[in-house]
Amino acid sequence: MSMTDAELAAHLAAVAGRLLIEVRDCGVCEGAALGKVGDQTANQYLVHAIRAARPDDGLLCEEMTCDGTRLDHRRVWIVDPVDGTREYGEGRDDWAVHVALAIDGVADIGAVSLPALGLVLRSDRPVPLPPIGDPPRMVVSRTRPPSAALAVAEAIGATLIPMGSSGAKAMAVVRGEADIYLHTGGQYEWDNAAPIAVAKAYGLHCSRVDGSPMVYNCDDPYLPDLLICRPELAARALAIVADLPKGG
């Protein structure tokens, strides 16, 4: 039976996640070596599966050299086989698998698997958000939180929650464990296409930190910043960032 695009994204993310858990549990390697093996294993599965299931679509994947042919397609799958390779290699649970479909530059379809938690969050099965935190909670990088995020957190009185991968941070907001994720340290399309698709479906605010929309399948896949948050926090967070000194 054929799958919808959303069903396919969720299926691929779930299967890749199970493969990654099996690779990690076999105990052959750890750390950076495990991260490399996991990336290669999940990437091989996802690339072959997408090309088999949707041969007429474009594909952008972190672990695959881009030949530019995706730019000729309206429909492009954007994939990160392991978002948070360091966390995966360290045996942590804050890493993810991203599978998204962007159509005409918009990522509305996607799934994010959190394999170590046994969860798959998907754009076609949103659930109501729980009440916002009081005070609000902000997820930030556990190693290098951006100064803009720290400035917003201080201004709104947010509690900081250090976390690993971008997908894990975005899904913490989707799951109601946090209320805002603001990043200005640089990302690529595969880092956030699937998280944005899921977050939008759940009714969260999703944009660049200047308020402009996220645009995908660009010639240069670099996407320097994003804001995913409860709608009631968006205007204030955007205003705070706009008032920061340039480069803040």
TrEMBL record:
Residues where Mg(2+) binds: 62, 80, 83, 191
Essential cofactor(s): Mg(2+)
GO biological process, one term: 3'-phosphoadenosine 5'-phosphosulfate metabolic process
Pfam family, one: Inositol_P
Keyword Metal-binding: yes
Organism domain of life: Bacteria
Keywords: Magnesium, Metal-binding
Protein name as catalogued: 3'(2'),5'-bisphosphate nucleotidase CysQ
